[in-house]
Structures are given as C-alpha cells and as structure tokens.
Amino acid sequence: MAEAHSAVAFSFSITHEGWDVNFDREVLNLVWLSGVRSWKKRFFRFMNNLKSGVYPASLGSLWLTIGIVTAIHFAGYKVPYDLVGKVTPYLSGSSILAHLAAAADLQRLDIWLIFVKLLSGWRKPMLYSFQGSLPRLPLPTVEDTMKRYLRSVRPLLDNENYTRMERLAKEFQNGIGVKLQRYLILKSWWSTNYVSDWWEEYVYLRGRSPLVINSNFYGIDAILMHPTTNQAARAASTIHFCLQYRRLIERQQLEPILLQGIIPLCSWQYERLFNTTRLPGIETDKIVHYQDSKHIVVHHRGRYFKVLIYYKNRILLPCEIEIQIQQILDDKSESAESEEKLAALTAGERKPWAEVRNEYFAKGINKASLDIIEKSAFIVVLDDFPYEYDPEHPEKLDNYGQILLHGKGYDRWFDKSFTLCIGSNGRIGFNAEHSWADAPVMGSLWEYVIASTMETGYKEDGHNKGTPEFIPPIPTRLQWDLSSECIECINRSNEVVQKLINDIELRIYVHNEYGKGFMKASAMSPDAYIQMALQLAYYRDAGKFNLTYEASMTRLFREGRTETVRPCTIESAAWVKAMEDKNATLDNKYRLLLAAGQQHQKSCQDAMCGKGIDRHLFCLYVVSKYLEVDSPFLKEVLSEPWRLSTSQTPHGQTSKLDLKKYPDCISAGGGFGPVADDGYGVSYIIAGEDVIFFHISSKRSSLVTDAARFARQIEKAFADMKKLLLERKKIQQHKNGST
User: Fold this and answer.
1) How many folded domains does the chain comprise?
2) What average pLDDT does the structure give for the chain?
3) Which of 12, 76, 668, 716 is most open to solvent, judged by the fewest CB atoms within 10 Å of its CB?
4) What are the boundaries of the signal sequence (predicted)?
C-alpha cells in the first residue's frame, strides 16, 4: 500500500532541554495521552449509542446482566413489575444461553462468535453496533516477533549476513527489547489499539514529502459500463449518492461488514470519510474532521465554486444538482493569476505549504475561501478532457490512471479526504488522501456509488431522472488575493510536483486469460496464487529476491488499520528457483507451489490476527526514540526498502452491489505510486471470475525498473503457472485412468 513509502522513510528525533529530565516519564506521558484520546472516543461512542440504541452490548455487559439477574433471583429480592421473573426463563436450562454456558470447554473465540450471531439475529445491526464487542489488538511477545522476522529475511540474506542478523536480533531480544516491550504492554492495556494512533502520526502526519504519488491513492470507474456521456449528469448523481452514503454513516444505518456473515470488522475509519481535511504543519500535520458540512467545492478550469447541496432541509436531488454543475460548466469567466495552480501547494512538500498557509492564508479573503474548501464535505473536479478506455489501445487506460493519481499536479486538492474526478465524457474516478483511513473504506463508498448509479439510471438523453422541485442555490465563485510572493511560492511547489509527475510511469494491465475460478480449482487461494505470480515475475525482472510488502487489514480488532504480510518467504523462494531450474520435475514444482501458497495463507492469517511483524517492530522503535535509546537492530530493520509493494483492492463490501445482476459494475480498482526509487508499486483487484486488473507503477529515473516490462513478466508468470497446473492435472488424470 502507499503507506509503505512513509513506513520505510520513518524517522524522527526528540531532544530534551535541561539536565533534570526523566526520559521514562516522557514515554509514560505519551502512553497517557494515547489512552486519554482512546477514552474520549469511547465516551462519545457511548453518548452516540444512547441516542441510537445500545444494541448489541458487549459480552462483558451481557455476563454482568446475567449475574445480576441470577443473584437477585436466588436472593429473593422483590423487583418492580417482576422484571426478574420475566428475564429468568431466558436463563433456564432449556434456553439457548444455558446451552452456551454449558459448553464451557469451547474456545473464547467460538463463544464470542456464537453470541455475536445470536445477538445479530434479533435486530439489524447498525454501523457501530459491534464496536463495543471487538477485542483489542493483541501484543506479540518480542521472542515470537524475532522468530517471525528472522524467518522472513532468510531468503534475502546470505549465510554471513543472516548470522549477523541473528546476533542483532538476539541482542535486542535479551537487551533493550525487554524494556521497550514493557511500555508497549502498558500502552496495550491503557489504549484501545497500541498501534493505530502512532501509525497515523509518525508514518503519515509527520511525513514531510509531497502527498501526490508518495501517499495519495486513486480509484477508477467501472470501465465496462458507461451509463451516460453527460458530464454534468454523472457528476450530479455521483455527488448525490456520496451524500446519501454520508447520511447512512451519520445515522449509523450503513451496514457493518461481517466476514462470512458472522465476524464483524471495525467501522471506526468511516467517521472521517466526509467533512475531513489534512492541515499542513511545520513539523507535523493534523487531521481535522468537521461534524457537518452543507456544501461541496467544485473545481473547473482553475476556478473554485462553493455549491450548497442541502436546501430546505434535504439533500438536493440529482436533477437539481445537475443544474448547479451545468451552471459551472457554462461559466465563461477566467481564473485569476495563479488561482489555476493554487492546489499545487497541497501536492508539494508539507513544510513549505504550512509556511505559505500561515503567511498568506491566515486572514482576509484568502482565509475565508480556504475555510470553505477545507470545511467542505468533499471536492469535485470537472476536467475538460475525457477519461478513456479501449481494450484495443491499453495506453488509454494507463492515461486514465495517471489522471486520477496526479492529474496536472495542481488540479486536485490533495489535502481533502477525497476528491471526485469527473471526465468530460461522463467517466469518473477519485483521488484520496491516505492518513485518515485505508483504501477499503473508499472502496466501500465507491461500490455504493456504482451500484446506485446502475439502480437509478439516466434518461435516454443522458440527463438525470426526475423533475426539480425548485431552482437550487446558484454556485458561488471563491475569490483570492494572491500576492507576488505567494504566487512565487505556488510556482516553486508546482516545480517540485511536476518533477515527480514526469518521473512516474504507470501501467494498468488487464489479465483476462483466467481468474479466480481457475485458481480455486487448483487448490490455492486467489491472493496466494497472485502473490506467487508476483514473486516469480519480480525474480525474473530483477534477477534476485527482495523485501515484499503486502497490506493486510487488522480490522478484526478495535480501531485496527493494517499489518504487513511478507510474501517473499523460504517456501516461495524455493518454488521460484524450481520454476527457473530446467532440471526440476513437474511434481516438485507443483509441491513447492502448494507449500508456498499455504505458507502465504498462514502469514496472512497471522497478520490479520495481530501476529504480524512490522507494526510491533514499528512501535518498539517509537518507544526507543522517546527513550533516546539506539538499537542497531531496529535501525536496520526500519530502514529496509520495500522494492515490491503490493495491495489487493477488496470488492463486494456492500450487499447493494449485486454482480450477478450487474456483472459490468465491477470497478477496475485503483493504485498508488512506487515505494522505493528502484521498486514497483502493484495494486490488484480480482474482478469477477475471469479478470484481474493490475496497477503497476515505477519511476522512469530508475535504471532497473520498468512498469510495462514488469506487466509482461506478470503475464508470463500467469501463463507458466497455468501451464504447470494443467500439465500436472493431465498427468494425474492419466495415472487415474491407468489405475
């Protein structure tokens, strides 16, 4: 994921003035503040639950209720309205609860799942219904993390370097690691999640490099459908569906995601999807979320317009918003000097943007206009060129992705939680800031928008259905007073951004020879299959193995975000070498492939269940910096580059998207920039049974990477894997026939 870029470059220093300073107290203060933030969130969640209903309560409160009722019953106390008598039958020997209680030998997870299913059967759960019942992210032991880490780097190191790393790991485990772990144990007890707040601050908000390409990610339309070519109509309906989605979040009516219909995922990240912006700071940025916003900001030809989307106590209809969008498109006024490139400030380096904001946007008309942008629900960009897709011309899809990843560098407001991008031909996409949440949250919104588009449709002439009930408010043009010094700063930032854009290469490869259907039939999970293909492709491309990053979610736990899976394993390396060995037997290649796939699945399960490697090491490193303790082991581990950074884009997160009914609704996914200067960024989405989209990025300045070349290597790897599996199947069928 794009987060890997910041994770690699993560570094900060803390100094204390004076002589009488207790460094340990500084860490305790850090842990205290983390816990305070956590308890504040719990308080506001509790207040919200009182307003929205308290279903379902946590298991702790359920057992407490059972205990109180049972105690009152046997004590013989009289309770008004015979409440105990009404509750007791549900606790009798014939009840479900009694059967559950009798099954005391079941594992805690099994009991928890049964109760979640039992409770969810009573009433349709709300968005935050399961937050109170979600467990905390467990803290691994240092010993376990060292074992996993050493195993993960074995295929990357020769014997001499591996022995050296073993020594460093042992010294850390038996030395400073013991002290650092104590502080993490304390933090894991006190705060809701021992990783998330530090991850957000130190990996994202303290990063000083440009957001464009390095951090922000993008998402593409469902390219197999094109419901209307009318730009104003598509923009209006997309805006309306986004606002409907926001209302579902605000009312907690959005359905929470349940794995296999039972296991709930944390819904915390949805809170900041709308009305959110990232404000630049000299040393660190901050995320600001506004409780409400009744307007959006639309950008067109270098001009910014405030558009009211609430009127007479309701969301404007698509046909009403279309009138507003068309008014902006018909506006012939020109942008003011440097207004067109104003957003380059949000794309460039963070410290210069913070200085410019404090100097030139802290008062007057500039502050008023900037406030309107930052307090908007989201940003909409109306581009004056089409977003194109043509299977016969793959370069058009590549250009589509580049438009969404970075645009012109100055026509997206990269600080906002997300920016909707609308092509002149009615195709859409988005660019999203990464610090406030991870890609699956935007993916959920995107699925809702696409599904709603197909359900609602358009008139035959391409306009939105329905009749306006009134004339909507006219969009208001934002005004700026940009001095020559401010304009110079804008131009400098734009120069930085243009260098980044000119250096990026993006290739979107559509693999349609086969998909997850064939993979499952081969007794492998699709993700493991794809990751093995990427390992084979990378080895052929680079001639060696390298540290590989795959983002995995930890939303099984409260306020969970991501963990790193390391797909380059001992097993995957053995299989790749066998594939390149002309003397290796077919059966050996097949056996090694299955073993590699099984190990990858185990690594994914460990990461999802809080048994990963990298987040634990990251938090240990944070504590070491606050204690001002140097660790050669942590320093080396945290500086290792991820030359192959990968992420799977999930789909099917909402029941609203029925792919059987609308098979063309699947999005082409999205992507991000490369993490290392000499590496690849690869995002992929399994689009149905027979199609996989790969978004591959690299830097043109690198002498060792080439996105188009790597796409060809992926294609060849998939072909070779299919050939291997089919030949093995053919031999097995022949043996069975002979038998």
Assistant:
1) 3
2) 88
3) 76
4) none
Indicate the pTM of the whole model: 0.87
Report yes or no on 24 lying in a domain: yes
Q: Give dist(CA 410, CA 350) in Å, integer.
A: 15
User: Which CATH number covers residue 226?
Assistant: 3.30.559.70
Does the pLDDT of residue 54 top 70, yes or no?
no
Are 273 and 389 part of one and the same domain? yes
**Structural domain boundaries enclosing 105:** 56-120
What is the mean predicted confidence (pLDDT) over 392-401? 96
Reported confidence tier of residue 103, pLDDT bands at 50, 70, 90: very low
- The DSSP line for 596-647 is HHHHHHHHHHHHHTT--SHHHHHHHHHHHHHTT---HHHHHHHT---SEEEE
Residue 33 has pLDDT above 80, yes or no: no
Among residues 705, 641, 712, the alpha carbon closest in space to that of 678 is found at: 705
- Residues 450, 330 share a domain: yes
User: Pick from 73, 97, 120: which residue ends a domain?
Assistant: 120
Angle, CA 371 vertex, CA 365 and CA 374 arms, to 5°: 145
Interatomic CA distance for residues 393 and 435, integer angstroms: 35
Q: Residue 101 has what pLDDT? A: 39
Q: Which DSSP symbol is given to 699? A: E
Q: What residues are labeled active site? A: 434
Q: Report the distance separating Cα 704 and Cα 677, nearest Å.
A: 10
Partners of 76 in the β-ladder: none
Q: Say whether both 391 and 490 belong to one domain.
A: yes
Q: Are 115 and 2 in the same domain? A: no
Q: At what angle do helices 231-250 and 439-456 cross, to 10 degrees?
A: 120
| CA neighbours closer than 13 Å in the CB half-sphere of residue 60 | 6
Residue 277's pLDDT band (cuts 50, 70, 90):
very high
In a domain, 690, yes or no: no
509, part of any domain:
no
Last residue of a domain, one of 459, 474, 504: 504
